[in-house]
Amino acid sequence: MQSYWSTHFLLPGQVHSQAQAVSEALEGAREGVASLVGCEPFEIVFTGGGTEANNLAVHGLLLNRESGRQPSQGTGHVLVSDLEHDSVLSAAAGLGASWEVETITCPPSGVIDPDQVRELLRPETRLVCVQLASPVLGTIQPIREIADACHNLGVPLHCDATQAFGKMPVDVMRLRADTLAVSGHKFYGPKGSGAVYIRRGLQLSPIAFGEPREMGLRPGAENVPAWIGLGAAASLSAKCAEEASTTLLSLRERFSKGVIDSLKGEPSVLCSDSPRLSNTVALELPCNARQVQRAARQLVFTAPLSDAPPDEMTRALRVIGRTESQIARTICVSLGWTSSQEQVDRAVELLADACEVVAVS
Amino acid sequence: MQSYWSTHFLLPGQVHSQAQAVSEALEGAREGVASLVGCEPFEIVFTGGGTEANNLAVHGLLLNRESGRQPSQGTGHVLVSDLEHDSVLSAAAGLGASWEVETITCPPSGVIDPDQVRELLRPETRLVCVQLASPVLGTIQPIREIADACHNLGVPLHCDATQAFGKMPVDVMRLRADTLAVSGHKFYGPKGSGAVYIRRGLQLSPIAFGEPREMGLRPGAENVPAWIGLGAAASLSAKCAEEASTTLLSLRERFSKGVIDSLKGEPSVLCSDSPRLSNTVALELPCNARQVQRAARQLVFTAPLSDAPPDEMTRALRVIGRTESQIARTICVSLGWTSSQEQVDRAVELLADACEVVAVS
Lengths: 361, 361
Hints:
Chain A is α/β, with parallel strands linked by helices. In chain A, 42% of the residues lie in helices and 13% in strands.
């Protein structure tokens, strides 16, 4: 990214001959993202992050707000899973009064049933939104089966895949989603970078207003350095995700086993029988909520933060039917490419200490 | 910015104690932007760039799209100058059919007449948009007088000030704009960074959907490294703009004089009697459009790029009444902090060469 802050500071559309080099580098980055997703480069639109990617997919598909025209509100039925990120849930809620947004409820397994989606689909359904993997539970959704159910009725499927990259191979030809959201900083790319895969032939409108860039779908000066960084991270992740997945899985299992062995009272792994991301585990601990919070603060784990409005973790745990007292004793652990056995063992020790203090006191 | 990619990679709202340091650094950056604009830090909302800042000011003020609620379209009258950037013009055009958007026409001087704004204001006017300075003509608008006219009727004024920073001191207390757009890469900050000044007490709605960040006005993970860079550039620009302005002015005058002296046929400086940015000059040359284009390509000047849809430069030149043939012979030159006398002299030579070839052929 460095040279695109300083030497190559021009924008791809500018007159100067050096702008051509910037344009070519940006197209190289687009190829990197395409390799991550398994699509053609022209099916990738760069964004400022995952939130913007989800907003663009949902509103861009359903609302016609072409620059200079008045917004056409449209009407119809939209299905959204209750595990979705806020940027999908509230984009759907913000479609307007003429839209009916219905929830696909996730069972305690943490995995959505394609048959339920099939039953909820109607002739007037215009979009279905289901994430690829939960950042809290780690559960992986049967996107292919859900996509097939949608396509039988000609309904597009948007898949928020932001959580999956770098932890599992993602291939949009296999998943068959029609749009797919990418967030750079979730797989070691820069913050403030993201992308949307848009299946060739699918028509979207821009959601922001300004000079048409990114195939007319994203106005504003191209964030060249961030997108170059995103492309590099994507190329790396496309190559390494499968191998990383194996390493992460063995570390995660070492962690889960360590916690279970060292804590009396049987901590339980949530959704343990479901397909899950190799790096993620949600653990219900046999200890006091406050001690869990303190351990989490030391360990950069996530613990429930707030009740009203509920944070992402609290929401996901409620969805699978956990009680408020169970939620308060739950931690969510995500391991990364730089996590080591030593770190995992130390984390187990710290957690065991935190819980034992409670047992004694 | 570097350490916020790597060491301090957490987000300000996270649980870990290191996230507190990130939060403090971000508030320091907010103070930097506040010093640039002359406001309090809590009046600054970070964005992904100038386009988003303009979109947020216009739609955030006029449309109520709070997360989870249906968009309330509203109704009213909006005044927008015809010199505005696409991100203001098309945001206004995209307000919807219930809004009447009226144009404030700029005279050949390149400077809007506050009396014209006074005459166009109506009881139902809900917003006025006038930029601080034109990137093409360099002309500086009488924002203070326009703001006073607006406030007499209780109408807020949005000012796109993106072009002015680093070239002149900007003080929102003196300008009295109610919202003001900032774009990082216009004053040596990073691409993909921007901000909006929002006068205390003014209520805006977010224009995107997701977890509430940036005082609820901008969802999505905070782009910490970019905003740290924006803050540093803003602090520098706040200190240096006045001095830079003097240096830039002398270089610009050297360039204008050089071109006028070396070209027969009297090239003319557009809007030369109006207050202008110290670094910008639009010159109508006594030569062939194609040669001007070639010189521009070598020199990173801007020349008109396209007619349909007209690019920003073509639009601005039409606004002040230049004919199509005059527009084709016009270049727009912006000097920067790193521009030198040698570069200016070389630019004059290259331009003179380009025009002489035409005179001979």
